Every structure is written in structure tokens, then in C-alpha cells.
Automatic annotation (TrEMBL):
This is tRNA-2-methylthio-N(6)-dimethylallyladenosine synthase. Binds 2 [4Fe-4S] clusters. One cluster is coordinated with 3 cysteines and an exchangeable S-adenosyl-L-methionine. HAMAP family: tRNA_metthiotr_MiaB. It is found in: Cytoplasm. It comes from Ahrensia marina. NCBIfam families: miaB-methiolase, MiaB/RimO family radical SAM methylthiotransferase. Residues 19-139 form the MTTase N-terminal domain. One of its GO terms (cellular component) is cytosol. The keyword Chaperone does not apply. Monomer. InterPro entries: Elp3/MiaA/NifB-like_rSAM (IPR006638), Methylthiotransferase (IPR005839), Methylthiotransferase_CS (IPR020612), Methylthiotransferase_N (IPR013848), Methylthiotransferase_N_sf (IPR038135), MiaB_methiolase (IPR006463), rSAM (IPR007197), rSAM_horseshoe (IPR023404). Belongs to the methylthiotransferase family. MiaB subfamily. It comes from the Bacteria.
Amino acid sequence: MSAPIIEKTPSADSQTGTKKVFVKTYGCQMNVYDSQRMADALAKDGYVETSSMDDADMVLLNTCHIREKAAEKVYSEIGRIRMVREEKRAEGGDLMIGVAGCVAQAEGNEIIKRAPAVDFVIGPTTYHRLGEVVSKAKTGKKVVETEYAVEDKFEHLPAPAKKVMSGRGVTSFLTVQEGCDKFCTFCVVPYTRGSEVSRPVSQIMDEARRLVDAGVREITLLGQNVNAWHGVGSDDREWGLGELLHKLAEVDGLKRLRYVTSHPRDMDDALIEAHRDLPVLMPYLHLPVQSGSDRILKAMNRKHTGDDYRHLIDRIRTARPDIALSGDFIVGFPGETDQDFEDTMQIVRDVTHAAAYSFKYSTRPGTPGAEMPNQVPEDVKSARLQRLQALLTQQQKDFMQSLVGKHMDVLIEKPGREAGQIVGRSPWLQPVICHENVGQVGDIVNVKISQVMVNSLVSDEIATKLGQ
Ligand code: SAH
Ligand code: SF4
Ligand code: F3S
């Protein structure tokens, strides 16, 4: 999945007398999507979501294994939850603790050994069995469900009620592909999410229509390698993501489409042309290159060069000139020299990004990178990351500044933090603070940008109102 690494807790939907689950999500957008699907599965057994551990009957941690820090966080969190459970037990209550997500898949039984307070562990391919797992755990048995499922979990996962869907806002994720066969030598995902699986067209279309019917106006298609999605189309021909986007664009009421995360090797002609031909497809692409050094790209098993990437970007920009790019970068991969790092700086200067995520290489057990000689010292990684981030931050600022004075369509998403404000999203993903009179949640409105705040844009109307 793509880079935005988040910690998110859902909003409460408390009702007295029902069982409550507190789901805490780490990691990528797919975990956000999965957390909702797990909440939907638990709803069948009478659980409602709560945003506080204090009134929860169950805590479900949806975890991320991508870097050591992300994985370790889970254990300190379990320690904290255990304390809450002690308090609850002292008062005659209880708290079930479940671990899902990529740490669950990667560590399985080890989690119970290291953190015996955990009641159950469930891997991402088996979320449709969550109800059974919870029932077993309730008998006092420790349950570890991490065998890769052969059946299609999506067929068995219940769809949420329309009311629940509506409460989740006007933008939504929709997983279309899961797993990865690329085996980049630094990455755990092929081991935690299994091999690439594409959801069938009919399933995706049904879910998209349900979302739109519940008020969703923008859908972001998700996959660890979303542009590796393929399937048999409604015309009985083999489709790729480009064709799927065309089909989704026909859904009445759906105003915006995005997809994340893509691999440069899977950007085929049909997908590039979709950026040219589909107005609903937003002009924004997260296309990680990781490094600008051909030597390092080879060692990472990315199977393309820096110039391959530059040419690809040229083609995409020719198809859609206003497209903004974002990417992921790793510094300090084993063997990375000063010159290799300079090559990364150069590709960043050549390509220019509207946003980007950059990380110090983190050694992951079981990946080929962990066995490689010439691991880069921590202080060298830190110094490189600092230089790279300074450049990327400057590019992000320049991009945002370039929008000042321009008119753009904004999808209104939610009320603002202050009275009189409403917040929308630009085609390039920046939040746009608008005057509440410009429209209602779910509307697309055209506003002029008058200034930039740190991570958001301010529309002319609100700036005037604020007397700026
Ligand atoms: N499927 C996505 C990657 C998901 S992981 C893709 O192919 O783009 C998100 C990002 O985390 C990766 O793009 C990479 O930049 C970073 N990452 C993955 N493994 C890492 C590691 N071992 N150390 C540091 N960063 C890593
Ligand atoms: Fe990881 Fe590479 Fe697969 Fe992305 S393409 S999930 S970075 S192995
Ligand atoms: Fe996503 Fe982290 Fe797993 S980035 S796929 S939750 S390892």
C-alpha cells in the first residue's frame, strides 16, 4: 500500500446496552478499509464501534509490519490495554484483546507468547472468520487464525447497513486488489498479504454502487499493487485497471475516482490513457520509485531503472498535463553509497512531487535485504533522510504555492474546525478551507484559492470573510 502511515480511531456510535468494539488502525489505507469491514463483520454479532477503550468490551488492533517501529508499537499498546483490562476486571467487567493486520500475519503465535494478554490473532486474509474466532476466544481459548484463506473473503464479509455507510462520509476506499508478487527485497508485504488477488468486476461494481447510493461521491480504489488489478470484463475480455476505471466512471452520482498504490512496472497504456480520457479520474498519482540509483533499484528488485521511471512520467504528463505526482523513497538501503543517494536527489529534482513519503531503510526479518552486506549506519541514514525531506518539503510548498490565484473544483467533505468554515478537497488532495456558504457536504464547488496554510489551501471566499 501507499505511504501515508496513520493512526486512526473511528468515531463513536455509542448505544447503551450493546457490546462495543474499539478498533485502532495502524498502517496504510488498506488497513483503514479492513477495519471498517471487520467492524461490519462484528456488527452481525451485535457489536457497535466506540471511540474509547474505556467503554469497550473488545479492543481490536489492526497492525502494520512495514517498519520495525510500526511493529514494535503494537506491543507497547497491548501493555497499555492490559492495564485498562485490569481496572475493568477489578470492577467486574472485562476486555477482549484481538490483534489483526500485518503483524498478526507475520508473527502469529509469537504474539501470544510475547504478549499473553492477547486473546486472539487474525490475519488479513481471514477477516470473514472474525465472528467464529471471537466466539472461540470467548470460551477462554487463545485463537490464532493466520493460515492464508483459499476462499474469497470478500464474498463472505457482510456489507454494512446503508445508514452505517452514510455515516462514514462522502469519500471512501474500495479494495480491488490485495497481495503482492513483486518481492522488493526490503518489503514484508508479499509475506503479510500473500500473493496478488484481484476482486471480480461484478463485486467491485456492486460495492461502488452501494457506496454511491449511501452518499459517497469519491472512491479511492485500493491495492498493494492496485495497477496490477486484472479481471474479466463485462464484454468477456481481459481488463486491466484502465478498463475498470472506465466502467466505474459510468456509475451515476460518482464524481471522483482515485487509485493507490501503483508500481511503475504495471502502468500500462490503457491506464495512462484513462488519465487522458476520464474527467472523473483525479489528476493525482502516487507512483513510488524508492531510489534514483540504478544499482540500488536492481538490488531492491524493482526491475526498472531511473530513466525508465523518468520516461514513464513524461508519458503520463503528456496524457494529463495537470497531473501531480507523489512517491515513496527509502534512504540507506544496504550498499547505498553517497553517489547512489545523490542519484535519488537528482530523480526527485527531475520529476518534482506535490507530496512524498520518505523513510530510513528498516531491516525486516525474513526479507532478502536483511541478509545483505553493507548495511548503512543509522547516522548516515538520518543525514540523508534530512536532506531528502528538505527537498521534498520544498517541492510540496512550491506546488501548493502554484495553486494560489487559481480556480479549482473542490469536493466538500465536512464542516470546518471553526464556525463558518467548511472543508473540501482539491483534485490534488489538499484540504481546502472554504466559506460555509459555498455548498454542502457532497457538493463539488468551484472556488478560487487565495492563500496557502501549512498543509491546506484557503479559498478566496473565506479569506475575504476573515478580512485577509
Ligand atoms: N505496495 C506499495 C508499498 C507499500 S509499503 C508499493 O509498492 O508502493 C509503503 C512504503 O513503505 C513503500 O513504498 C516503501 O517506500 C516503504 N517501505 C517498505 N518497506 C520498507 C522498509 N523495510 N524500510 C523502510 N521503508 C519501507
Ligand atoms: Fe512491497 Fe514492492 Fe510489493 Fe510494494 S511492490 S508491496 S514495495 S514488495
Ligand atoms: Fe499496509 Fe503496513 Fe501491511 S503498510 S499492507 S498495514 S505492513
